[in-house]
Amino acid sequence: MSEPRGRRALLGAAALAALARPAAAQAWPDRPLRFIVPVAPGGSVDPLARLIARHLSDALGQPVVVENHAGAGGNIAFEMVARAKPDGHTLLVGWDSLAINPALYPRVGYDPLRDFAPVIQTVRTAQLLVVRPGLPAATLAAFLDLTRRRAVTLGSPGNGSIGHLAAELLKARVGAEWTHIPYKGGGPAMADLIAGHIDAVFLTLPAATEHVRAGRLRALAVTTAARAPALPEVPTLAESGLPGFEVTSWQGLLAPAGTEAAVIRRLNAEVARILALPEVAAQLTAQGFEPVPGPPEALAARLAADVPRWPGVVTLAGARVD
Predict the structure, then answer these.
(1) In which element (H, E) is residue 121 found?
(2) C-alpha distances out from residue 248 to 53, 72, 124, 197, 303, Å
(3) Is residue 181 part of a domain?
(4) Quick check: 6 pLDDT over 80?
(5) Residues 6+ apart with CB under 8 A from 249
(6) What CATH code is carried by the domain that includes residue 116?
(7) Which residues does UniProt assign to the signal peptide (predicted)?
(8) What is the number of structural domains in the chain?
């Protein structure tokens, strides 16, 4: 009799454990969530993070606190989330640099494919080359010619950012020359450009859309295959004499590896719902984003494709960060 009773006890314990797991997932979230943003306030990553955080807080009944941890091309924030407890309360607002940095830096403290659980890709967009209005260059051709005749400073959201890499690709393609000025995010780069402290910036299109429309900056070209609906008058690099030149930027949410699947599914569903809200979709589209919500597997596939792609691009561009 003792053996059956022992088996029954084990089965009972297993059943209780199985019941406890869904209960734990249902209890989430039981405290505020943290959105870790790898750049300084401003630019394009930060405003989108705050927009989603505001709506997600209403949906989950808990505050969603946006924390900016800029530096090292995003690596500080990436490592912070990779090492965080996988309880669904710490999330990374990730973008291209998560996949690019392992090719740019001699060492990074994370693996983009093993250390994160993709939640959802939120948007994609173009990179944009903008110059200060006083610069004597109204077209891409004029700008490139100017770089060969005089010293030009070109800023980016940071070493290893996709804006930096797009600029290096352009430089390698056309033989232009400029001094690269890295910033801790698109916001500080834009502020210095508007103030006239630098000549140009390569950054994500939505960070500059309103400044271009207001005439504070002049846009020369976008990096996508087609023109951006938010700035339809701005030609593509391909139209400007560089056929085949294309760089598309993305943003998304990721959790630490090991986060419960039920939490990932809930987050995915809530953020997809938020992106589909008419007022949110209209705002993002007007800024230059294309909302592209999908399952977690879609962002995982994007990362799996990007990580092996960038080392060859980095080598071609000659970009390297010490």
Answers:
(1) strand 116-131
(2) 24, 22, 7, 28, 13
(3) yes
(4) no
(5) 95, 96, 124, 125, 126, 127, 162, 204
(6) 3.40.190.150
(7) 1-27
(8) 2
Label each residue of 30-42 as H, E or C.
CCCEEEEECCCCC
CA 86 from centroid of its chain's CA atoms: 21
Quick one: 45 and 109 in the same domain? Answer: yes
Beta-bridge partners for 243: none
User: Does residue 189 lie within any of the structural domains?
Assistant: yes
Q: Which residue has the higher pLDDT, 314 or 79?
A: 79
Judgement on whether residues 50 and 63 belong to the same structural domain of the protein: yes
Residue with tokens 């309880």: 87
- Domain of residue 289 covers 10-124+250-317
Q: What is the DSSP string of 29-91?
A: -SS-EEEEESS-SSTTHHHHHHHHHHHHHHHHTS-EEEEE---GGGHHHHHHHHTS-SSSSEE
Q: What phi and psi, each to the nearest 5 degrees, are found at residue 135?
A: -75, 130
Round the average pLDDT of the chain to a whole number and report it. Answer: 91
Which residues are within 8 A (CB) of 87 and not within 5 positions of it... i.e. 6 or more apart? 28, 259
Looking at the fold, whether 18 and 118 belong to one and the same domain comes out as yes
Q: Let me know if residue 3 belongs to a domain.
A: no
Residue 172 has which token pair? 């390698």
User: pLDDT tens digits for 256-268?
Assistant: 999 999 999 999 9
**CATH number assigned to the domain comprising residue 187:** 3.40.190.10
Contact call for residues 250 and 99 (beta carbons, < 8 A) = no
Residues 134 and 108 in one domain: no
Q: Is residue 136 part of a domain?
A: yes
Residue 314, C-beta contacts closer than 8 angstroms, at least 6 positions apart: 100, 103, 104, 165, 320
**In angstroms, rounded to a whole number, what is the distance separating the alpha carbons of residues 110 and 83?**
8
Distance CA 131, CA 133 (A): 6
Q: What is the pTM of this model?
A: 0.82
Which amino acid belongs to residue 103? A
